[in-house]
Description:
Radius of gyration: 31 Å
CATH architecture of the largest domain: 3-Layer(bba) Sandwich
Oligomer: single chain
Distance between the termini: 34 Å
CATH topology of the largest domain: Phenylalanyl-tRNA Synthetase, Chain B, domain 3
Number of helices: 14
Shape: globular
Strand order of the largest sheet: 5-4-3-6-11
CATH superfamily of the largest domain: Phenylalanyl-trna Synthetase, Chain B, domain 3
Amino acid sequence: xxxxxxxxxxxxxxxxxxxxxxxxxxxxxxxxxxxxxxxxxxxxxxxxxxxxxxxxxxxxxxxxxxxxxxxxxxxxxxxxxxxxxxxxxxxxxxxxxxxxxxxxxxxxxxxxxxxxxxxxxxxxxxxxxxxxxxxxxxxxxxxxxxxxxxxxxxxxxxxxxxxxxxxxxxxxxxxxxxxxxxxxxxxxxxxxxxxxxxxxxxxxxxxxxxxxxxxxxxxxxxxxxxxxxxxxxxxxxxxxxxxxxxxxxxxxxxxxxxxxxxxxxxxxxxxxxxxxxxxxxxxxxxxxxxxxxxxxxxxxxxxxxxxxxxxxxxxxxxxxxxxxxxxxxxxxxxxxxxxxxxxxxxxxxxxxxxxxxxxxxxxxxxxxxxxxxxxxxxxxxxxxxxxxxxxxxxxxxxxxxxxxxxxxxxxxxxxxxxxxxxxxxxxxxxxxxxxxxxxxxxxxxxxxxxxxxxxxxxxxxxxxxxxxxxxxxxxxxxxxxxxxxxxxxxxxxxxxxxxxxxxxxxxxxxxxxxxxxxxxxxxxxxxxxxxxxxxxxxxxxxxxx
Length: 545
C-alpha cells in the first residue's frame, strides 16, 4: 500500500524524517518496505522562478533574439537571452535558473547552464508552456499577471509538490490502516504515548446531509451480503478535469486521474478507507436501485468491456427493472458509470460482507481497489461520513446540487465490540508488568474505550474500524505494538517443563523437544523421504541455530 507523506501531514503535525516515520510505522505493525521521493514533473519546477523583465533590447544582426535582464526578487539581476517573439520589458515571466532541467522544443530534457549567445551572457531561460511540461504551446513565453509575487517557484504556482511515498506491506488483519486517516491515527497513538499526549488528528470536513427531501428509492433484498447501503442524488454536475491538488494526491499513490467526480470517489477511498461508486442517474431505469442476486449465467458487461456470466452468489446492484449495473463492491458496469455526458449521479456508499466480496472477486478474477478494501472489512459506521466528505468535494469541484435525501438502509447497526480483559492476563501475555495507568493510556491513545474497571480488569470498547480485534489477546496485541515490542525485556533464562509419563511416547517427547527448540530460534531440517522408511534406520531430526 502506498502512503503519501504530504497527505498524512494534512491530518497530523509530524515533522520527522521518512526514515524516522518508517521506523515508527514498522514498530506499530505497518511494516515499511521502502520509500521514494516523487517529483510532480520531470522538469525541476522548484528551480523555475517568477521574475520581472526589467529591460528588453533586440540583439543586432539577429531576427528573433532579445537581450533581457530579469529580477526574481533575490537581489541579483540576471542577463538572459530570449528568442520568444512576445517578450517585453515589464512582464512577469517564468525563469529557469542554471541547473534546472526543462524540456527542449523537441521534448527532450536538458539542463540550463550559463553561456554566451551572440556575445551576450545568458544566465537562465525564460520559459514557454511546453518547456515546463504544463502544455504544448511554444509560440511564446508564459506571461503572468502583473501582481504575481517575484521568486515564487513554478511548483508552488501550479500547485505541483514533491512528495515522499512510503510503501507499507499491509497484513490482512489491518483493515483500520487501509487508508491515510487510519495510518495517521496509528501514528498519533504512538506520539501520544511516547512524545506528546496532546497530539491531535485533524478530521476532513464534509457536508451536513440533514435534508428534508425524500430519499432515492432503494431496496436491499440481501441483508447478509449488504448489511448497510447508503447514498444520495446529486444533479447539475459539470464533469471536467480535476484540479492540480487532487490529481497530485492521486498520482502520488499510483491512482490515475479520470475526471472530477470519479477522482473524488477514489480520493475518499484512499483517504477514509470507504469505497464509493457513482452511477449515472439517467442509466438507472425505474428510478430505483435493487441490491440483490441474479440467476446463474446472467450476462453482464463490466467496465473493462468484458461480458461476464454471473454466479448465483454474486451480489449485484441493479436498477428498478433488475438490470445489473455493478458487481457490488467489486466492479462497475460498462454503461452505468460516469461519462463526460453525465450531469446527475446516484452516489453509493455501502458496507458489503467481506466473504461475499472475496468470493466474487476470486470467481471473476477481479482484484480491484474497492474489493481489496471490502475484503479486509471497512468500517460499517463510516459509510455516511464518506458520503458527506464526497458530497462536499463534488459540490466544490463539479458544482451542482443535492437532489434527494440521504438513503441509509441499516437495519442491524454494528456496535463496538466489548471485550473483558484482566490486567494480570495482559501482563502475562506481554511478558512485562505494565502499570494500569500505562495500559489505559495506550488504549486511550488508540481510541479504545475502557469501562467497568475494577482492581482486576475492565471491559474494552473497540471501535468498529478494527474488525480484527475480537478477544483479549487482540487487545494485548494492540497494547504491545504501541508500547513497543523491543521495549519488552528478554529474560536471561528460559525454562520449560516436560511431562513425565511412566511409559513415555518417544514421538511425543521428540515433538515436544522440537517445538521447544523451534520456538527458541532453531531451524529444523527434515529431508525428503524417497523410499520406504522401513528399509532405513530411524531418521534423526537435526536442528541448527
